[in-house]
Structures are given as C-alpha cells and as structure tokens.
Amino acid sequence: MSSTAPATGYCCPHPGCNFVAKSEISLRNHHPRCKARLSAETTALREKVKRRKLQQARKQGCASVESSFSQATSRTQIRRDNARKQELAVSYSGLPLHAALSLSERVAAVAAEEASGRTDFDCGSDGGFDIDPEGASEPETNIEYDGEEEESSIDDGGFGGGDGYYSEEETDLDDDEGDCLDSDEETLAPDIEKMKEDYQRADGYVNYFSDFQEPFQYDDDLPIYHVAQISLMKILNDHRKTDLCLFDRIMKWVCHFSDNHPDIWKNRKLRKYHTRDQLMRFLPARFKMRNPYPEKKTIELSDKSKVIVPVYDFDEQVKSIMEDETIMNRDNLIDQHFDKDTLRPTKSWDQLADDDIISDLNTGRLYMEGIRAYCDGPKPPDIDLVIGGPLVIFTDEAVYDSSGGCKTGPTTFTFAFFKDTIRSKLEANRHLGFSPSLSVGRGSNSGNIDEDEEITGKSKKKKGKKKSKQLMKVEDRQLVIRTILESLRKCIERGGVRFMYEGKRALLKPFILVVMGDAVEFNSICGHYNASGCRGVNAICKDCKCSYEQLVSTCPKCEPITLKDLDKAKTDPDYARAISQHQVDVEYNKIPTADLKEGIAGCTPLECLHVLCAGIYKDVADAVHDTIGVNSSRSKDKERLDLLFNYVSHDAGRNCERRIPKYSNRFGFNDRTRLTGKERRGNCYILAIALSTFRGYAIMSKFIDDNDTSTSTVAEMRDTICLLLAYDRWMNGDMRKWELVNAGAAVSKLMESIIQHLPREEKDKDDSGPGSNGYHKLKFHALWKFQRQMVKYASARNFDGSHGERFHKETVSKNGDKTSLRPKTFASECAQRDAEATVIKNAYKHVKDMCPDDSERNTYDVCSAVKFEFLDGEVSADNFTTVGHYTVKLSDITGRQHSSTVSTKWKDGKKNKLGFKPSGLLLHALSSRALQYGWRSELQVDGFTEIRVGSPGGNTIYRCAEEYRGHKWYDFALVEDPQYNTSYIAQIVGLFKYRTAGFPTPTLVDVDKLSAENIAQSRMTDNTLYVAVRGSTKYFTEDDLCKEMVTEFKLESEDRIYILPATSIKMPLVVVRDFGAKDSVSYLHCLAEHKWGQIFSRSIKSFMDERQQL
Question: Phi and psi for 1032 in degrees, rounded to 5?
C-alpha cells in the first residue's frame, strides 16, 4: 500500500496492496483475492529465506537441530521472544493502514538483515521479519540439513490467524535443558501451548467496516406505526405461551377495523367498557345469555375441610345447545333409522333385520329402551312435542402440571340424537361442573388425628365403628358428584326442560344413556372397589361378579351386578364385600338411566382407548420383547428388530395412502416407553409388517420356530397381532347385525390366540422385579365384554373416550394457562375461564361478518380419523390438479433412453440448477412408445411430479419424484387397465402429457382407433394426462388385497413399463419393501386402517359356516 492514504475510495487493509475500491461491495469482493495473493507471495519469500539460512548453517558447521526455525534453545529464550513479539504486534496494530510496509519493502528489509548476518523470523508482526532491537537473542545454532524441506508458516497479515511460530517438536526441550527451568513451573501440553500462542497472536479482525464502529445513536425518527408494532411485540413477548402468529393476527385485526371504521379509536371514550372484566360482564347482558358463568359451591368433606365445586345451570346449558342453529340443525342429526321430526329412533333393537347396519347410538338396544321408559307418558296440555334427551356424559380427571397439584375433572355432556361426528366436537358439548382435587393439603398420613382434640386437648369418643380412610374418600367423592348433578336432578324433578323446537313447544326429558371415562373413574362413580389388579378382591369388575381366575377365561359366563345387589349390599356388609362394593349411596343411580336393571354400572362401558391402546397393545409389545429375552438379555437381537422396525416405519410413512395408524419411531420398538395409546396401536401395525419380511422372520424364528419349547410360530404371532388390530377396527366401524350377534366365537378365538402366541407370565413381585398378573386383568376380560356393550350402544366408537381426552386440551390445558395455578382454586378458575370462552364464542358468531376473516387458522376440532373416512383416491377426469411441472424433449430416438438425447427444463429454476432429472423408467417408456410406431422425430412431453385428487375428506397425493425430502418417492396404487379390464398393483414412475402434434398417443390409437399415419398427417394433439406404471406380476382386485393385513407381491422387470390414462388409478396403497428378500422386486402390500375390519368380519363368517356344517 502507498505511504499516503488516498483521499477518496476504500483502501485494501492488506499490507503491500495498493488497491482502492469505489464501493464497499467491490472491496469485499477484492479481499479474498488479495489474501490469497499475499499468502502465495509470503510463502515464496519464506522458502527463499529458509534456503539461505540452511546454506549459512552448513558453512558454519554448527550443531544440527531438527527444525529450521528452532531459534530458541531454552525456555527463557522462548518467553523473551514471545514477549518481544507481543510488543511488536501491539505496535503494528497501532499503526495506520497506509503506514504498513509493502511486500517489496519487506523483501528489501530481509535482504538488509541477511547482509548484517542476523535475521529473526517474526510471526507476531504483519507477515514480516524484524531485527531484534536489543540484540538479546541467543547465538544462532547451526542447522544440519536432513534432505527434507520443513513446512513452516507465516502470518497472512492478520486476516487468517495462521499457525504458531513454534511447532510441537520445536518447543520440546532435552533432558539436560530442563534443569534450567524453575521447579515450580509446570510444562504445558503442546496443544495447549499452541492454542495459547495462536490466541495471543490473533488480532480480532472480522470486517473492515464493522470494526471500531461508533455505537448506534437513535435519532427519534422511527415512524409511529413501527413504534406501535414494537410496543405490541414487547407486550406479547412478556406473556407466557403466546404463539408466534398472534402478532400477525392482532396487526390484521387493527388494520381491518382502522380501515373500515376510521373513527373507532377516536370515539373510544364515548363507550363505557374498556377492561376485560367490564366487557365479560357486558356481553352476557347484551346478547341475552342466561347464567353463563358457573356457581361456586363450597362443600364440607368428611375431615371438615372445605372445597369449592363450580357447577353450571343444566337448563341453560341445554337451551344453549338447542337454540344454537350451528349445532341444532337437521344436518347434524342421525340419518339412518331416525325420525328427525320427533328426535326418536324408528326401530328398536329387536326390530332391526340381520342385514341392517349397526352404526350410531340409535341402533343400540338402550336408546329405545330409555325413550320407552321415560318419554312415553302422558303429554302435558301446553306441550306439542315430548323429546327424549339421552345424555352422553364424559368425566375424567385431568392433570395440568407434572407435579399433579393442579388437577380437575370436568363433567361434560351432549345428546345422543346428534351424529357421532358432531358429538366429538367440543362446540356440541356443555359442562355440568368441574370436580376439584380432594387431595390438596393432604399427605399420606391424613385422617389419623382429630383436629378438635388437638386444639382443645379433650378427647371425644365417638359412638359406633370408626370409618376407614378409604370409605371417607369414597363418600367425599360421592358428595362432589351429588353437587355436580344437583342441577340435573332438579330438572328431572320438574319434568324436563321446555324450549321451542322448529316452531313447536317442546319438552325435553333427559336421562343418562352412557357415561365415558376410564376404569378408575368408573369405580369411583359406581362406588366399587378400586382394585383392578388385586388378586384378593372377589369381584374385580364393577358390573359383573367375575373373580380373578375367571378374568382369563376366553368364554366367560358373566353374572351382572344389578341394582338389587346394590340395595342388598347397603345393609349387608358381607354381601358388599362379596361383590366388592362400598356401602355408600351411588349418586348417579338417583338419576334416570337407560339401563333399568344394572343402573349406572351398566351405563359405563369400558372403551377401546384404555382397554386396547393403554392395555392389550402394551402387552403385545411386552410379549415380543420377552420372547427375544427378558430384561436386558439378547440386546443385539432386540436392536436388530429395532432397526428393522425403523426401516419399515420409514417406508410405510412414504406412501400416498395416509390412512395408517399413528406410530412412533422416536426410540426403538423394544423401548416400550414414552408412547401414547394410539402410538402403541400404530407400533403393533408396523411390527406385524416387520414380522412379514424375510428379515423379520430371520430375527424371530430362532426364538420361536427353532425353539423346541415354543408352542407357536412367527406366522401365528403375526396373525394374532393382525387379528387384534382387525377386531379393534371392526368394533369402531359399521357392521351388520348378524356380525355382532355371532361375533362370540371369533372373539373367543382371538383371546385364545393372544394367550398362546403372545404369552405373558404370571408372577409375584420380588427383588428381581415387579410382579405381573399375566392376562388375569380387567382389560383382557373387556375383550369379551365389548360384544355385550356393543349390543347396548352399537359401534364401539359411540362410547370411545378419545374425543373427551381431546377436550382436556381446551378445558384444562388451555384454560389452565390463564389461571393463578393455585391447587385449591384451580378447578373454579378453569371453570370460569371456560365459561368466558363460551361467552366470547357466542357473541362472536353474531358479529362474525363484521370481523376480519380468521378461517385460515386450523382449530383442529375434527380428528384426522374422521376426515379420512371421506377420502377417495380414485382419479376422474375433473377431480385432480398437477404439481411439479417440467418439460422433457427426446431427440435421436434410436433405442433405450440412454441412446436418446434428453433435455429437461423445470418450471422451478432451482431444480434446473441442481440438475434434477425425471425417472429413467419414464424416459424408457416414452422411447419405447415412440419406437413402437417408428417415431424418429423430436418428442416433447410435459411431466409432473404430483397429482392431487380432491375429495370431501381432503386430497390424496400421488408422487413420482427422483428427489423428495432427501429420497426417491414413487407411490403405489391399484390401477385398472381399460383395454383388458384387469387390475393390479402398480408403481407410478411418471405423470405426463404429450405435447408433440401428430404423435400416436394411447388415447388416439387405442380408444379412438386412429392410425398412426392419419394422426401424423392431421397433426392431432391429445391433452390426456397419462401415467407410466411398473406393474405387479400378478393381478389383484380390491377384495384380494382386503383378505390379509399383509400381501406379498413382485414387480415386473424395469423393461416392462406401461402407459395408461391417469383415470386408471383406482385407489392409493401402502407398500413397503420386503427387507431381506433375495431380489429387489419383492414388496409387501399393507392394508390401510379403514379396511382392517373386513378381516374380522371374514373370521366371524368362517365360524358361522363351521357351525352350519356341524
């Protein structure tokens, strides 16, 4: 660089560079080139100096050292040189950039040093050499040339940091030299010493324009619009658990009302309501909402403590449903076998034919029995219509925090005359009350002392037998239930709820049809012993007298516990123990129930979520794990199964058919922990597929097939898992009445298979580990009881508690975020927040048209399983769109695709830069078709990577891409060849349209029956979307694929690619590779979840046929 700084422009900071840039961008572009040049020049200079010093050392004949740069011979000299270099580095860093020596000037300085006979190599400076100013360096040692050039480094002007001056070998001292070191000084490790020296030499340079800049000074010139945004962002950031899109939604809201109502904020002082509390009091009065907020009732428990129970007015909750047109309309009512004018079933259970569909609650036995019992009496004179109000109640305790202090149990209800898809929405449900936590402030030792005696010091002897702590808890629970049901009970005493229905004066008579929850909640409601795993309990089930040994029976004869048994148990303690019942009044039995014989115990069916997902599926995983090896034994084989599980799950997730259960591959299959109930179901599905592969059989066969002590095979284990999954789906789907009535033999066979092929050992708890009851458990017994419950309530989805658990996200989790998190008042605060949310929703629906559109926000009010029921992947002429457009041109077509000239242009420019190409099989199909008709000219087609088929439940996406999220993705589908009327499994390798005029396309030749010559002469065009497929070696129909959970098939060779119209695609499929197979064309078709039930239906039919033959 010149000695004088230029008046204008940007100077390069490298020493020896005279470049002056006109802009910052130009200087930034120059910087790496200058740095590379300087590095090359200094390297050449270093080699030149090195050769001269080696020559000088030979002449002097001094003692040799290993490195040519080992100038220092003692630790003292090293410290002195390092200190001197630090001083020089500081002095150089203080110099102006234009005063640094140029490269030519440094070369002259080196020559002067050599002439004087003494040269020191200084890496601490800006890449130069310096003469020791004090002459304090040690005499130069002689260097012996060993025939190899030593690598060394020189500083690159402060931009790269460079390597250290002394290498690890150069700083090592001989044993005799170590005597001169102080005994209290520790020798640093070579890498630490090098790191320290590098850090000392580094000059902190990052960017020429950002270094030594002045701090930012705000000039108060930001527009007030941005100031308001910053203020809003700060407010939102101060609050916990606010999603990131909230800022955008508020900005959209402000702009909407400011644009449409410019004076809205100027006239705000004319309005009375400004705060949230004021607004929440104003809205119910303005929109005539009657008693929307819960009443907080204080009750005294058995230990004299008090809790607050928030309860709602039942009449007003019912009217809020019946008067809401978005909920109470004909489209939301049950369709089949139901009169929408009277809201009553048209057929009872006995009147249904064998081929009638058993679907919604009205096709069960109890719906009509409840109507006949409570709604067929005399009609009051001022009432036009008496409507039965069968209540569908969900109650379960939900814990907000991980410590369990903040918890509550909402009791929610809706009516059975709504469709099951409507009942599963939170908007169609209302609350009766929130049960508070009864354990707040109580420890494990509570209930052992009398507080009055502790305070007064006087002992008060109570007459009679002292109540047990367990009985006191049961009585407290029933007291809370009585408080929650009080409003419902008063409504029933009055005779029902009056309201207007379609212009008629209607009287709704409520009664309990079904209560959903878990086994713990049911035992609490029914006053039954909560001891499902205790072997000493006489009657483990709340609704039958089956003992511990009878639970494992595959065809049990259950004797129900009736209301007469409960009446006898109240006065007979021995009988109460015989049926495992507490001697308390069951509050739910004081409310009319549809089951007149068993009462509330017969209206609380066990459901699939807790029985299967949180029970039997967990036993399946445990059985497979223990079959390989108990505890941590045979961990290598377990890891092999885990790896296969991950491979299969990866393939299963990359398919166009998305109707497969949710699974988890966060951990290995054999971990069996940190899973939700539905993930356990999905893992069993993936396991069944894995056991169907060659690799899966090889892993498990040595523990089952090759084991002389085993009573089953790998195939039997897999088939048992598949049958269990099919039973699950069959229960939750629609069925014929004859299937349900005759399902007993198939269920019994399933239970026998589980015991035999998925064994669980019964053992006592000891030091080696926890105990196990095997299959002597309530959840296994429930497999048999499901059939009886489905006769009462039709499909098992009608008493599935999944949607109730989902409600907890809103009623407990979301509302809990807005509470003070005090355990004692948590229930009442949640109830208040939930009521406020209902008030806001009711007010919003009246002013929705005046508010900004907020429909793009997904509220997740309908689970994906409901939407999947309406998916249809069949392609028609007008129900699809294409995505991923590209153009392919083929020229010089002389043979296979590799003999043709191919050019590809993507609509997405990024794919052009990355060099993406279509499938080689697609190009082969295009070339083959062209050669078939002697086409030698250029052929152009428009290709696509996706086709999206629309349906009421969403889109079905078929992909055929060489690159999608890091992997190839070519979907499988069931296709039908229109020319031969055959169907088979096909892999989609391409989607395209012909764009070359006059080309003999399949539609023009095979459908329109035109000759290739006429097509070419008339230059005809074809706008049909075609699909190139690689078919299976065998033909398959949809019925063939529904017979088994997993079906093996092979693909044709890559030479046989077929071109069909896209409308040939009939349905999406789930296909995975057959891992471990000897060829690459073996695959497994896996049945989608919505079709599993057909397997169990066939099992029922086969047992019926066997009985008829006998």
Answer: -80, 160
Instruction: Show the tokens assigned to 626.
Output: 């223990």
Furthest CA-CA distance within the chain: 133
**What length does the chain have?**
1110
- Which residue's structure tokens are 């592969």? 693
Q: Any idea which residue has 């391409």 for tokens?
A: 990
Angle, alpha carbons 921-927-928 (nearest 5°): 85
Residue 678 token pair = 């539905």
The C-alpha atoms of residue 677 and residue 675 are separated, in whole angstroms, by 7
**CA distances in angstroms from 233 to 244, 251, 854, listed in the order given:** 10, 10, 20
- Cα angle 807-808-809, degrees, rounded to a multiple of 5: 90
Domain extents in the chain: 10-201, 231-269, 866-1068
User: Torsion-angle region of residue 713: left (phi > 0), alpha (psi -120 to 50) or beta?
Assistant: beta
Residue 49 zone, left/alpha/beta (φ > 0; ψ -120 to 50; rest)? alpha
Amino acid 408: pLDDT: 95
- CA 420 to CA 954: how far, in whole Å? 20
**pLDDT at 717 > cutoff 50:** yes
| 752-764 average pLDDT score | 91
Distance CA 302, CA 474 (A): 10
d(CA 651, CA 1075): 11
Task: Name the most confidently modeled range: 230-234, 631-635, 974-978.
Answer: 974-978
* The pLDDT of residue 624 is above 70: yes
CB 1023, CB 942: distance < 8 Å: no
Mean pLDDT within 538-556: 92
Name the 3-class secondary structure at 683: helix
Beta strands 504-516; 385-395: pairing state: parallel
Buried b (16+ CB within 10 A) or exposed e, 2-17: eeeeeeeebbbbbbbb
**What would the pLDDT profile of 1033-1069 be if each residue is shown by its tens digit?**
999 999 999 999 999 999 999 989 999 999 999 999 9
Element containing residue 950 per DSSP (H, E): strand 946-951
Q: How far apart are CA 388 and CA 379, in angstroms?
A: 12
Q: Predicted confidence band at 59 (pLDDT cuts at 50, 70, 90)?
A: low
Question: If we measure between CA atoms, which residue out of 392, 387, 415 comes closest to residue 328?
Answer: 415
Closest by CA to 797, choosing from 541, 425, 309, 420, is 420
Q: How far apart are CA 986 and CA 1051, in angstroms?
A: 8
Residue 112 CA to residue 49 CA, distance in Å, equals: 12
Residues 882, 907: contact at Cβ < 8 Å? no
pLDDT band at 586 (very low <50, low <70, confident <90, very high): very high
801 in Cβ contact with 516 (< 8 Å): yes
The Cα 655–Cα 816 span in angstroms is 39
* Whole-number Å distance between alpha carbons of 257 and 255: 6
Q: What DSSP designation does 282 have? A: H
Interatomic CA distance for residues 732 and 533, integer angstroms = 27
Outline where 629-676 has alpha helix (H).
635-653
Q: How far apart are CA 992 and CA 1059, in angstroms?
A: 10
* Confidence at 67, pLDDT banded by 50, 70, 90: very low
